[in-house]
Every structure is written in structure tokens, then in C-alpha cells.
Amino acid sequence: MNVDVRISDLLQLIGRNLSLEELEENLFLIKCEIDRIADGVATIEVNPDRVDMLSTEGIARALRGFLEIETGAPKYPVKQSKWQAIVDRSVAKVRPYLACGIVKGLALDDNLIAEFMQLQERLTGTFGRNRKRTSVGLYVLDLITPPVYYHTAPPDAIKFVPLEFHEELTAKQILRDHPKGQEFGDIIKPFPRYPLLVDAKDKVLSLPPIINSNDLGRLLVNTKDVFVEVTGTHKQTTLQSLNIVITALAERGGSLEAVDIVYPDHQEQLPNLSLTKREVSLDLVNATIGYDFGAPAVTRALKRMRMDAKATQKVIQVGIPSFRVDILHDVDIIEDVAIGYGYNQIEPELPKTMTVGQELPMTMMLRTIRDLMVGLGYQEVANYVLTNTRTLFEKMNQKIKTVVEIANPKSMEYHVARNSLLPGLLEFLSLNTAQELPHRIFEVGPVVTINPNAETCTDTVLHLAAVTVNSRVDITALKAELFTLLSNLGLKGKVTKASDPSFINGRVANIQIGAQQLGVLGEVHPLVLANFGIEAPSLAFEFEILADWVPKMGS
Amino acid sequence: MKYRLSEKAQRVLDYLQSTGRPLSLEEISTALSLKEDTIQSLVESLRNQKLIEDHESSTIQSYQLTLEGQRFAEKGLPEIRLVEILAQLGGEASVSSLEDNKILDTTEHQLAIGWARRNGWISVTKRGEESWLRLSSTAVNAISQHPLQLALNTARRTGELSLDTLDFDPKTWKSIQQYFEKRQLAQLISRRKVTITITPKGIKALEASRQQKDMIQDLTPRILKSMQWKNREFLPYNLQAPAPPLYPGKKHPYVEFIDRVRRILVGLGFQEATGPLVELEFWNNDALFMPQDHVAREVHDSYQIKIPKGPGTLLNRTIAEQVAKTHENGWKTGSTGWQYKYSFDVARQLVMRSQTTAVSVRFLTEHPQAPLRMFSIDRNFRPEKFDATHSAEFLQCEGIIGGEGLTLRDLMGYLRAIAESVGIKKLKFKPGFFPFTEPSIEGFIHIPGLGWKEALPGGIFRPEVTLPLGVDFPVLAWGIGIDRLAMAALGINDIRELVTRDLGWLRSVSLRF
User: Fold this and answer.
1) Which of A302, A310, B52, B112 has CB atoms 3.0–4.6 Å from B82's, for a disulfide?
2) Which chain B residues are within 8 Å of A386, Cβ to Cβ?
3) What is the domain-level CATH number for residue B306?
């Protein structure tokens, strides 16, 4: 996920003048990469686990720690306020959770407003699962008359001027006509009543998670005090999103004030920025990274990563800041120890365990088959598994059979998985008619067949197919090649009468290997040749390679 | 004289000299009863040696029958056949009675009536419900020696219809051409026609060659047995002459590259594994601790399957339950889990496998014993448009190393060893992120001219991945950007060219990479 950052702004927040190389090197070591730089703006790639770094403030906060300008968990005092947000029972079924907070004493300009919008977009896009889980709104505090109400209303009864519009629209119209309504409308469409945030004068703040109102829901230049609101369907994500946004604003010098969220059955004071405690064993840290670190080295590394850490003998007590939403397990803390220590400082170690390498027996089998086919004078080709029914069936003069079909194809050229190799080979040949004859090609590879009784309702099966095109072809020679191949694989085969619309009637046979009928051999039907635009007679065979043919050794 | 003429080349030169006029290749081919492609390569080589030269090179046009044209040449034009039938039936018949009469098939029926009417050969009248066809007085005469039919027949006999060998008057010929086009019976094709003559140098070579007749050309068992070679001279060969290209059977360079990497990994002690291309969401994602609403699992990042509908089967119920609980609350792994309600319905859905890691977790489930090293090079699928850098179908190469006491430093050591074994010398590490590993690493390799490129991702499987599968020791996981390596090795800069459809390229590409 990319974040655009003004470099001068970033350096000012860090509080140290770094050269571009130093900046790049340090970012690299805390999981970020500079993707490109243009006009003083760096596009920084942030890993999707660190949603707290989706803003200039978040990146600066991490770098300040890593550079040891300021270490340990940052402190964000939250003052009491009289603000309340009242949650109606009716939101429970639609979008049950609300989290709010207040930031005072900011100095907003166009750049900052654009940056906060970016944070909001990136955060709700990833962590908020495209606003399904959470969506975030920022407001000019002075324009809102407390308390704020979070309730629901029928779509026709909701009427306000949405952002980027000049006239009043109903919620129904917003979902139909507003770009954001079209993009995110599906989240609330199934519900008879839509969630709505209004103030005490019944003025609309927002129709979450779609769009804010143009009157109250917009940050203005010179705004000092900001009201932040997050709604969501997942409690933890809702609270954490508020923490990420509000601590980013605090990094800009804002002071935080709490809002009481009044649910029908209980009350919460937010934001809750207290640290989460975890105890990690020093031995586990060392066993995972592969060093014999003492406790001081570990606590120092964690503090560089903006965590609180102290040690009691062999236990590290860690305080995890409220914006670090990626810590699920001790291993997440251990990675921070490694990052805080510096990946560039860690010496690779030569592996000690001893194991015996081994190919799959089928790999050996396939290699033998490929060697023999090359010996018989065939050129190997490789095709995709994905293809289309026109090539698989229509051009082959076959009735359409059931094959694995993709529900969300990107292109109708590639919307099914092949169940045989021959159509791909003929397609290959159709593109090479200008090449000197003869054309002799083969492919060994997987095809997918449907099997309702299998674990995945399908079988992935290996096939071999070969085609010869020449001005004159000799089917006896092809048969000789097939039987030479089989006998060199220690297999007994025979051909039996068959009819197959891809081949000329009377010049096609089934290939039986052992007791099973596994494939087909014959002279390709002129209609099929015409469909592929192949201008000379062609012979082909294809058969399935069975798993139990694999060599006996090595298993 | 240095030229050593083959027997066939000598015959060609002989014939050119004896006729004393420019000849086309067809003429030579017929006169000497040699195959046309043999003549072509002979002429090519004689022309290169300047023993013959092109006298005239022109483009000639001729008509070649389409499939339909061929059919009508064989069976007769449908309107002519209709007239014949009507004549047999006494000059009149109802349409339905003709339909019963199977001489014309259904599609031809319309054609026959249509064209016969246009030509004024029949008239159509309604009698009650029935349409009746009646022959006109001129029809029977008109169809005998009908020019269009004659042209078709000639074309069928001679294989094509060249524009200058016809005895039609210009007006008739013009109408035949119009019919060819309108009815798509024949197509105009152009070919280059060359006539050649022998050069003075060729005459000299021919004479020299004749003089060399008593020298040994082909050494035969008979000559060896009779010891004749003792008294005769050997005709020298021109070994400096260019040799014709050959197209032997060859392996595909991309498949061969993959096979080499495979052998390197076996050499490093890794055991190969594979898995199904159509996968359960469970193995593709859930077992990797990717929450069921993870963005990478949405429609734009993985191919969902319409047919078969599924659901598939979770064969190991215990492991499925353990994975479910780990997602919900961490189970016994020491994790908080993802704090949501896990769905077995989602777990059983089918997807095209989007990552080879599915193979790794399947392998771990079946081999939960340390020490282990496994690798897999296999196909994966993601909804991408095919372009120079993206492919909806691609190979991933990845592996796992399991054993007591394995560490992050060991992982770095393995990554370095793997990189070195495929020829990468400069490597540096950055912390990375993958949903299923922690700590995670990204190995950057230095490619001259391109700088540092991400190529070796890795990490230690999260306990949330290993413990639910019954694996209680650390498992290191790594991957190689195998398609990128293959492109570099083969000198390809468009990912689609890895599965090239260019036979010429495959025939000419060097396998030394």
C-alpha cells in the first residue's frame, strides 16, 4: 500500500535532517520502501500489517523511534469533555459500533487536509475492508451541536447535500447517483433503514459508510478543532481505527479530548489509548532470532520500535501502543525485536540440519517421457492451463463438455481450465504456419477434470500430447513412435477402434495402456485443421499419464 | 575446378543446359521427376553458388477452390442438379416432393431454387399450400456445358485455375469470376513464379563435373569390397559450403530451466511436493491464517469457480476445527486470533490455487515430523490481464524447512545458500510482511543495471499456521521469484514469452543458459 509523503514535512516531524540515502536506508529497515520521488513528494510503500504507518505522522513516529530520537510508547493524554454520542438500538443490525474523539488546537492547511483524506482512504480501504468493516469521518468541531446521534432512518427520509454536490439528495438518490454511493452502496443496500449520524439540531454529519454531508462533514482550512468518528461492523477494528487516526492527529500537535459513547445498555469513554500488556520470554526471543541477547538489548530494540519494555529476569514486559493493531502473538513482538536490532546487523548462519533431497517420482517419469519425445524428434512446447471453450471444443469439432469454469474471469480467452492438451498444441501450430515443415511438437502437463467425489471436486491429471504436421503424413510411423515410447516406459499398449469428431472417421483409434483406455490417436479432421487455419495434414495423439507408472526406485 | 556437384544438381544443370531456355521450377520438377521441395533447395544452393541465376521473377495469380467450391465441383452445382432432377420428373415438381427426394440437402435446397430462378431456369407457382417448380424451355440446354460448372471442374482437375490458361471468352470469364466471389466458390491467390537459367560459371562447373565422372563420388560398400578405391581418385567435397538448418527435437527452455532449479533444490536436500490446481479455500487461505474477509481473498485477487460448484470436502475434521478456532480466538497458539465467526462453508469453497504455500501446508499436515525440507514448483492463478509483466497463470517456487531450534538467522543462511546456488551473489535483507509468517524477510538481489530487486521472500511460519496442523517445531518458509529468474536467464523481457508460441524462436534459441 502506497502513501504519498512530502519529504520536507516528514523530516520536520522526525526532527532531524536526513539525506535521501539515510532516509531510504532507514525506511528499508523498518519494512518500508521508497517507490518513487517526484516534486519533493516520496511515494512510500508500507506493508499492509502496519496500518499505523499509512500517514506521514505514523511514518515519522516510527522513524523517530528507530533513530532513537524518541523511544518507547508515545504518550497521548486524553482530557475529559462534555461531548456525548448517543447510539440508538436500531443500528445494532446494520452497523453496530461507533467510536469518536476530539482533537483540539490543530492548524489545518490544504496539505494537511489532503493528507488526512489520504489516511482515511488508505485505512478504510485495507483495514476497514473497503469500508465494510469500518469507515472514518472528520468534521469541524465548531459546526456541530452536541450531542451527536447515531441512529437509522428509512432511505427516503434521509435528505442532505452530499460532498461534491450542490443540491439535496435522498439516500436512495445518493446510492444511485453519487460516485461513492455507487462504489460502496452495496454495504447498506440490503437494509430497510440506513445508518445516519446527525447532531442535536438534526443536521446530517454523514451517511456511513457512504458519504459525509457537504455542510458539516468537511474539513476547512484554518480549522483548529476536529471531531473524529468511526462506525463499523467489527468492534475491535472500529476502536483501533479511531486510535490510528486520532494519534496521527495528535502527532500534529493536537490535544485529545474524550467523547462518551452512550449505548442503550452501557457507556464507553473513547478514545481508549491505554497500552496492551504482554509478557514475552527472553529465551523464546533468542530461540526465534538465533542470538543470545541479554534483556537490555531486547528492551532497547523494542523501545526503538515505539513499545514500552522492561525486563524482570528472563521475562520481558511489553506495553503495546493502541495504534499497533498487528500484534496478535508473541512472534509479532519478536519480529519487532529483530527489526529494532536491525535486519542489517543480523548475521546469516549456515544451516545445520541434514535431510535427503528427492524429486517426486512423477517428476522423474515426466523427464523420461520428455527425453524420449525429444529423441523421437519432437519439439517441446508449454501452454497455459487456462483457455476457452471455443478452442477446447468448438474448434475441435466436439460437443461442449463440462470443464472447470472460473466465475470471475478477466478475459473470455482464459475462462476455463483445459481438460486436454491437444487443442493448445493445434492453437500453437495455427500461429506457426509460416515455419518450415515438418512441425513436430509435444507437451507434457497438467489438465483438470471434474470428479464430484474428489476432495476438491476435481482431479489434476498429467497428460502427454503430440502433433506432427507435414505435407504428407504417415500414420503407421506415428503408431510406431507411440509404441516405441510406451515400450521404453515399460508399458504395454494397444489401439482399439474408435470414433472421435476431431479426427477423420476410420483414421482414429483409442489408446489402451494396460487395462485402461487412456487416450486417442489419429489423423486430425480437415474441418478441425480449417478451424485452426492449419494448412497441411496432421497426426496427433494424447494420453493420460497415470500416477502408478512412476519408477519403482526412490520411494 | 572446386565445385563438386551432387548427382541431382548435375541433372538440374544438365537439363537447363540442354533445353537452352529459362525454365520454371515446375517444369524442372516434372521433367526430372524430382519433388518440388527437393528442387527448391537444390535451386537455392545452386543460386548461392552462382551456378544458375533468376531469369524472370513474376507474380502469377490463380483461383483456388474453397471447401464449398470443391464440393460443387465434385457433386455439381445445386441449381444444375435441380434442373436435372426436374427434367427427370417431367419438368415439374412440388417443393415438398423435392424435399423428400434426398438428392439435395437442406442448405443446398435454398441455393438451388434461388440460383435456378435467377438464371431463369425455373418458375415458381403457388398451388394451394404447395409451391411448384417448373422448368423453363431453355433450362436443359443451359446446363449442358455450363461455364461455371466447367470452370469448377477444371479447377478441381488441375488443383487450381490459373488466369492465363483458360479458353473462356472475356465476358463469360468475367461472370465466372463474379460468381466465384459472390458465392465464395474460389479464392484468388498470388504466387511468385521464377524461371532460371544456367550461368557461364554453371556451365563450367557442369563440364568440370562431367570430367570428374571417373572419380569416386559416394564411397559404397561395393567400392570398399572390390578395393577399387586404390586406383581411383576421390572427388573432393566443398566442406566450406553452408549447411542447411536442422530442427531436432528439443526441450522447451523454460521447462528445462525449471527442471534445473528443481535439481539444484534436490541437491540442497529438499524433497519435492505438489498439490491440486483447483484448491479449497481452506488450504489456499484459511490454513495460512488469512482471515476469511482478507482483501487478498476477494474477487479481484483470486479466481473463484463457477463449475464445479462444490463445496469440496474437508478430509481432516480435527485440523479443520483447530484452524477454525485459531482464526476465531487463537485456540492454543497463544494468539488473539482474528476475533470473528469462522465459516466452514467458506472453507469448503473452491478456488484456482493462488499460491504454492497451499502445497506447503498440505505437506506439513501429512509430514509433521522434524527435520524436513520440502519444495514445490507449481502453477498458480490470479485474476490479472496478461501483459508484459503480469500473467494470470504463473509458476511459484517455494519451500519449507522444519526442525527444532531453527531461527531467523538460519532462514537468512538458507536464503543465501539458495540464492548462491542459482547464481545470485549479492543479497540483502529487509523486514517484510506476509500474512502467514512472522518474523518475515524480503531478500533483495542485486541485478547489474537494474539495482536491488525483491526476489526472495521468506519468514518463519506463524504458530497460528503450524500448531493447528499438528506441527510443534519452527518451520522456515521461503520463495523464489522463479519466473523473473527464468526471464533473466533466457533473455526475455515479456513474461508471456516464457510460454512462447513462436516455433521459430524455440527452434533457434540456445539452450546454454
Assistant:
1) B112
2) 381, 392-393
3) 3.30.930.10
